[in-house]
Amino acid sequence: MISLTKIRQIIEKEDEGPTLDYKEDLVLETDGDKAQFVKDVISLANSGQTAHIIIGVEDGTRKLKGIKTTHKAEQLNDILKGKCDPPLTVEYAEKTILGHKVGVVEFSGENPPYIVAVLNRFGGPLSSDSRKSFYIERGTVFVRNYNMNEGASRASLDKMYKVKYVVLQPDLQLGHEISLKPSEGQIEADIEFFLTNQGEAVGTHTIVWIQFQNVKKIVRCRDVCQDISKLNNDIPTVQITPLAPVVPRVRTVCEGVTVKVDSDVGQIVAKVIIGAANMRTKEGTYVIPLKEKIKNV
User: Fold this and answer.
1) Which CATH number applies to 4-165?
2) For the chain, how are helix, strand and coil distributed in percent, rounded to 5?
3) pLDDT in tens, 206-235
4) Class of residue 278 by CB neighbours under 10 A (exposed 0-12, middle 13-18, buried 19+)
5) Helix (H) or strand (E) segment spanning residue 45
6) Using an 8 Å Cβ cutoff, are 54 and 90 in contact?
7) 274 pairs with which residues across the strands?
């Protein structure tokens, strides 16, 4: 459940939107009232994010009024039961802010689209005005446009499905650290490679292929680096095959390779291809400065 500090920040700074609804009161006496509550929850949940209904706050001004009617999570979830597909459950808490008690309904729209799942039609007169009624019907999809809850358009549904079915991928990037020492008129460069993942998914079955363009020879490879020059027409080439998946925002060290270059060479240039089972292969030119701070490419 959201913290008291965060609730105060929301009320102070945020107007109603796709994930936030203010209500002066939440009355659930009649079936019409309950049908409106179901509509509100489905509309906010179809944002695909965590949403809140904050009760006891004046819409438009965000002025604290305090709740008039208390509720419990069990009561609210009993109203929602059997009326949303997929099912939705909420958390409920009451907090005191500047002497006013507010109610907070919190729920997650992690699996949109949510649709009305009543047997046929549900609702009836509203407690605020018995001359008015409100009903929800099976199969209806409600969405929230700005601060209004309404039936979904085709564009709204397309957006929901696009968000739902987008495939998260890793974004693997190669980095390195280097140490140098003179060696018989040449430079021996000890390069330790590492991978970072800037994507949202774990990189699985990763392979990195590095073909050096101005290296005289590969002296040695360590750990998951393998000299495959003979398989590439004796062009100095290494293959890196990490043993473990490459986790987002965690540096995966791949050990490295020691190569020799001419002493007058200012940088090592290589062609690099990075691939994973769940990532589109990326390739490009990789430059390793020999006299400057190492940088990622």
Assistant:
1) 3.30.950
2) 15, 45, 40
3) 999 999 999 999 999 998 999 999 999 999
4) middle
5) helix 31-45
6) no
7) 208, 282
What is the CATH T-level fold of the domain 172-289, as seen in this structure?
Immunoglobulin-like (2.60.40)
Nearest to residue 99, comparing CAs of 53, 58, 137, 66? 66
pLDDT for res 295: 38
Q: Can you name the residues that pair with 6 across neighbouring β-strands?
A: none
Taking only the tens place, the pLDDT of each residue in 60-89 is 899 999 999 999 999 999 999 999 999 999
The domain ranges of the chain are 4-165, 172-289
Find residue 270's DSSP bridge partners.
212, 286
> What local confidence, expressed as pLDDT, does residue 297 receive?
40
Gap between the terminal Cα atoms of the chain = 41
Which residues, 6+ apart, have CB-to-CB distance to 71 below 8 Å?
26, 28, 92, 103
Instruction: Give the Cα separation of 48 and 152 in Å (integer).
Output: 14
List the chain residues with pLDDT less than 70. Answer: 161-167, 292-297
Q: Give the pTM.
A: 0.56
Distance in angstroms (rounded) separating the CA atoms of residues 90 and 74: 9
Give the list of residues 6+ apart from residue 251 with CB closer than 8 angstroms, or none. 175, 194, 195, 196
Round the average pLDDT of the chain to a whole number and report it: 90
